[in-house]
Specification:
Rossmann fold; about 45% helix; 7 strands; single chain; seven-stranded mixed sheet; about 250 residues; alpha/beta
Length: about 250
Amino acid sequence: MTTHHDNVKQQFGEQANAYLTSKVHAQGPDLEYLSKLLTHYPNAELLDMGCGAGHVSFIAANHVKSVTAYDLADEMLSVVAKTAQERGLLNINTRQGYAEQQPFADNQFDIIASRYSAHHWHDVGKSLRELHRVCKTNGKLIIMDVVSPGYPVLDIWLQTVEALRDTSHVCDYTPGEWLTFLSEAGFTIDNLERHRLTLSFDTWVKRMRTPDVLIEAIKAYQLTAAKDTKTYFELQPDGSFTTDMMIIETRKVV
């Protein structure tokens, strides 16, 4: 029987190089935010949680003492290790495992960053409690991810197109849900920023190798969307659209 974790490994393992070259993943205001923040922590040990192709790791390695790139997909970790070597980033090491059960010691990391990973976690509450465990007291957790608007009609539309496009998708949580999850896990919110993220339809579906039948289903579903939904997501004739993403900077107090 195929599990959710199996779906994640298959979806992302086979497309590791596509994520390395993806413009959506290689740039953005969230990476600029992180780079500026990390200049103040040259001695930090950082965990890149759900590292994907390593964009957070590569930026962090230029600022902090050491980076652990952690992901479920072995192929992603191979891309990170190879690219780090090519770029001369010798302070990056890789580890494989689940978000919900991590192989790290208590209070191991000064900073934890997770970008475009959390909406794939099978159990977000358990994963955040694990991150709280491995984070040092007064250490930071920065979550960067797509979020739902918080209005039922818009939320359902976004979850539907995400799920049709990617079988490993779990949920784009609302900002309010994120604040609750993080507080319940023991983190204090220090800063929150909201940005808009434009997704080119063609590269968006190609990156996940979405089957043609599901691509057509997404297009059909987009055509039936109400006018206010199309306006909010800035839906284009080619299927491209704009959604919300959020940067949440938190701290472990105890």
